[in-house]
Amino acid sequence: xxNPIGNLNKVFDSRIRMGVMSILLMxxxxxxxxxxxLLELTDGNLASHLTNLEENGFIKVHKxxxxxxxxxxxxxxxxxxxxxxxxxxxxxxxIRGVHKA
Length: 101
Fold this sequence. Notes:
Blueprint: H1 15-26, E1 30-31, H2 32-39, H3 43-55, E2 59-66, E3 69-76, H4 78-97
Antiparallel strand pairs: 1-3, 2-3
């Protein structure tokens, strides 16, 4: 039997990073505050996971202002979309393919 977890991407092991990527896959862009509210996270917890995804080249950070207030938004990169879709496909294959020999 082939290793069922061999094609899973370790970056997406975290349920928070899975949630972020799922949201970004379905939305062109989303703000930090919206992500925080949707995932029910603290600033620090969300920020550390976003940094991980950014360092891996899976998301882009856009910093700007609305009036005088800072506004940070995030979007998925082409590499991030490809990696996440491959991860989801590997999950599906794992679920379908795992059975006793």
